[in-house]
Structures are given as C-alpha cells and as structure tokens.
Amino acid sequence: MKLTHALALILVSGNAFASPSTVPAGIAWEQGDVSAAFAKAKAEKKPLFLYWGATWCPPCNQIKATVFNQQRFIDRTKQFIPVYVDGDSPSAQKLASQFKVRGYPSMILFKPDGTEITRLPGEVDAERYLSTLELGLSNARPVKETLSSALAGGKLSVDDWRLLADYSWESDQAQLIEESKLASTLKTLAQAVPATETYAATHLQLKAISIAAGDEQASTTPEELAILYKVLADKQLSRDNFDVIVNSSSDIVSQQSKAASAERNKLTAAWSSALQKLALDPSLSANDRLSALTSQVALAKLDLAKDAKLAEPLLKEVRSRVSDADKSTSNGYERQSVISTAAYTLSEAGLLDESDTLLKAELKRSHAPYYFMLSLGANAKKRGNKDEALGWYEEAYKKSEGPATRVQWGSSYISALIDLAPQSDERIEQTAQSILKEVAVTPNAFYERSRRSLEKIVTKLSAWNKDKQHEASVSRVLTQLDGICSKLPATDPQRATCQGLLKPKA
User: Fold this and answer.
1) Any long-range contacts for 12-17 (C-beta under 8 Å, 24+ apart)?
2) Residue 506 pLDDT more than 70?
3) How far is CA 115 from the centre of its chain?
4) Quick one: DSSP state of residue 217?
5) What pLDDT, on the 0 to 100 scale, is given for residue 504?
6) Is the pLDDT of residue 55 over 80?
7) CA dist., res. 135 & res. 118, Å (int)
8) Residue partners of 224: CB distance under 8 A and separation at least 6
C-alpha cells in the first residue's frame, strides 16, 4: 500500500476535512523491520511500544485521533521505541501470529529485552490510556508476573492493581488466562484488591460480569446487581468504567434480568440514565458520546418486537446527535470512527435511509471508502434488497486495498453471494478464484487474519455445497487452493495451514 506522509486538505461541500496519512505525524515511528526495532530497543535500553492496526479500522483511527496526536503521548515516545505495523504490510499477519494479536488495534508494551509488559486497552479514553501507558513504563513489571503474584496472595502496589484492571484481557488470546476461566479469575482478583483501591476492584468485577454475560451457563448474584446499580447511579463511576457501561450494556442487562420483568425495567432505566449522561459528557470524544447513544438504542430495542419502532423522542435525539457529530468532526482519522458509529446507530434505530445518506456522503471524503461500502451493503440487506446489497459488497471488494484487507473483504463478498444469491455458481466461483489468485502471490497469506478469512471462505463454500449441488464449482476452487499449497516449501509452516483448509472438502 502506498504510504502518504503529509496531511492533505480536501474541500467537500464547502467544508475542509483533514485527510489523514497512513502513519500519524509527529512521532519517529519504526516501520518495516520489527526485529531491528527490538534490537534497537535492547541496544538503547528503552522499552518498545508496538502498534498493530489497519488503515480502514475505526477504533484504530480513533486512537490516532485521540491518543497519538496528544502532545503528552508524543513526548512520551522519546522514552521508548515506537513501532507502527500496518496490517497490510508484508510481514504484518505473520507478526500477529508471533505476538498473538488478532483484533485491530492491538498495542503492546515490551521491556528492552523483548519481554511483554502489558497490553493497552483500545476502548478507553485518551486520559486513561495515557495513564496506563505511563504506569507500564514506570513499572516495567510484566503483567504475567503481577497476575501470578496476585493469585498467590502476594502484596501488590497500587500501580500493579491498576495495570491488572486496565489490561486488555480480551486481546491477549488467552495467553494469561484460558478463556473459560477468565470471568471467574477476574472476579477472584477483584475480591483480592485492597478496600482502598476502589477503581481496580470495581473495574475488575465489571469486566468479570461483562465477560460472563456472553456465557449462557453463567449464573448471576445479588452482589453483582448491587455493584451495577452503584456504578450506574454515580456519574464518575460510570465515567471511570465507560468501556463496560457502554460496550456491554445489552448483554449484561439480558443476563442479569428476565425479559419484561420488573427487574429488567428497573435495570434498563438505571442503565439508560447513565448512558444519557455519558452521551452528553463534553469530556468524552465525539465517537465515545455516540457510542453511548448506540447503547441507548440497543437497550431500547431489547424487549421490543422485531418490527416495532423506537419512541419518537429517541429517534429525534439520534438524528440530532448524529448531525452534530457529522458537522463538528473535521479530523480525517476521527471521521472514520465517528461516521462508522453514527451510521451504525442510525441503522440500528431503523433509520436506514438516513444511514445511507451519511455513508454515501462519506465515500467522497474517507481515505478508506470501501469500509463504508460494507455498511451500505448491510443496510440494503436489512431492507431485503439483495441486488443492491450484492452491488455494494462487490464494490467494496473491488475498491479495497492491501493484501490482508482484500482477502477479508473478499470473504465478506463470498458470504453475501452465498447467502443472497446461492444459485449464482459462476459468480461465486469466479470471485473465489479471483481471491485465490491474489493469495498465490502474497507472502505470508496463511497467517492470522488472512488465514481466518480463507477459513471463512472454504467453510462457507463447504456449507453451500452440503447437498453436492455445486460440486463442480467448489472442486475447481479447492483444486486451485491445493495448487497454491503445493508450491509452498515443505519447511514453511504455511504449507500445513494451507493444506488444512482443504479438509472441509472431505
């Protein structure tokens, strides 16, 4: 992908929108040779900060707009080696496999010797992010060691507890705690926190509740409800625990209360009130305020019938907030995040036409318009307009840039074709073959996100052909994939991965 190192001003409808460069300015980012960057960190005895993300990714762009542009962060980079890895660079997906990172963005802090210190959360505000970074730099004790000490009953410092509370648990690929035990372990940690460290105790407990909410077998307790009501009733506590309160609202409410019950009504009302305050909090970024609004919509829909409309006052508020965010956001990085959230909120509120209008206008402004084309396809699919949906998914794939992104967007297009036009054998086969043709000449095409995208394609094709009605098309695609596998060196781990993709054929 071509890299641009200057900010350009694009005039759209009379407004100036800053189009972002791929790499955030003002920081001496190391790019390309990550091994050399680690060697430099060791030689200079400096920690290393690794950022792994993608040009199109809204949360990545949010980090760039709210953290990487902060003078406090820029000044801090002089104390460590900052490394920027774009997910579409030649070695990015292999590095992702090495460092066990999956979601964009992933940010890891290492000691000079390469030992991982901590993983930084990407869903928190700039102030909390920077505080966590500074704690990691000053502490330099790996979270793995801190966790072991905590679970063994050891005495931890205030900073230790804070780092545990703000560790990016969901992005470490279960390196510290296996997924099935994560919620219970975080609950155990919360109970071990000294009474004086209220933030760490509360946040660990809330994270435990949030993670358990995704488990249908998990039980609830009166103590958990009491903690939730306490946080929701306190504006500062809600603000301090923004990531859980906003991102897990409907999941937690669904688990903690039964549909149409008095408890459901009470908890929903308390949660909606807390979200309303966050949505109006000027200290939060535009995207975070919109995210709080999105959660309000999700809660309002929780017990509604499938085709029921939201109350008009909420719809009016959604329109007003989205309009304000659209008009007030000029930074190109931030717009990629804000418009994504705004369009999704409109769509979830049932305002599909208004969501489309917002997205189509952004196609002319965005540095990654293909991302918004997927949202337009999803809106068309919601309306039941299959041809329009497929048109957008196809256009998104054609316009996408970067090897990892193209195979990911291609997998989305294949899935849409099979779901919406399952009799289009020729179109499905040609698309799959086009994707594999690119994969054949792409280094490291069978690692991490690219591998998972290819797995998705093969699995989808296998399900499509479960009755052997598309055997000829699927056979030709798998034969093409087999040819790619056979050309990989026998000593290359990718060969076994590639050959493993062929198993669904059996």
Assistant:
1) 12/364, 12/365, 13/361, 15/330, 16/330, 17/330, 17/332, 17/335, 17/365
2) no
3) 25
4) T
5) 55
6) yes
7) 10
8) 205, 209, 256
For 453-470, b where at least 16 C-beta lie within 10 A, e where not — what string?
A: bbbbbbebbeebbeeeeb
Question: Taking the domains of the chain in order of start, what are their residue ranges?
Answer: 1-140, 230-308, 402-506
Structure tokens at 462: 């296998």
- 271/265 Cα distance (integer angstroms): 10
Q: How does strand 81-86 pair with strand 48-53?
A: parallel
Q: Note whether 428 and 476 are within 8 A (CB).
A: no
Q: How many residues does the chain have?
A: 506
Give me Rg for the CA atoms of the chain.
Answer: 24
The predicted pLDDT at position 360 comes to 98
Architecture of domain 1-140 in CATH?
3-Layer(aba) Sandwich (3.40)
Helical spans, DSSP H, in 234-304:
235-240, 242-247, 249-256, 262-279, 286-301
Q: Are strands 116-120 and 106-110 parallel, antiparallel or unpaired?
A: antiparallel
pTM over the 0.90 mark: yes
Q: What is the overall mean pLDDT for the chain?
A: 92
DSSP 358-405: HHHHHTTT-S-HHHHHHHHHHHHHHHT-HHHHHHHHHHHHHH--SHHH
pLDDT in tens, 384-427: 999 999 999 999 999 999 999 999 999 999 999 999 999 999 99
Q: Helices 179-192 and 198-212 sit at what angle, rounded to 10 degrees?
A: 150
Instruction: Say whether pLDDT at 301 is over 60.
Output: yes
Q: How far is CA 476 from the centre of its chain?
A: 34
For residue 335, count other CB atoms closer than 10 A to its CB: 27
The DSSP symbol for 252 reads H
Kind of pairing between the strands at 116-120 and 8-12? unpaired
**Kind plus residue range of the DSSP H or E element containing 448:** helix 448-464
Give the span between the Cα atoms of 33 and 92, in whole angstroms: 10
Distance (Å, whole) CA 86 – CA 29: 12
| Of 62, 65, 129, residue with least CA distance to 119 | 129
Asked whether the predicted pLDDT for residue 272 surpasses 90, the reply is yes
CA separation, residue 276 to residues 5, 184, 290, 320, 407 (Å):
39, 30, 10, 14, 39
Determine the straight-line distance between the first and last CA of the chain, rounded to whole angstroms. 37
- The average pLDDT across 378-388 equals 98
Distance, CA of 300 to CA of 303 (rounded, Å): 7
The answer to whether the peptide bond before residue 504 is cis (omega within 30 degrees of 0) is no
Q: Which of 14-18, 217-221, 435-439 has the lowest mean pLDDT?
A: 14-18
Confidence of residue 21 (pLDDT cuts 50, 70, 90): low
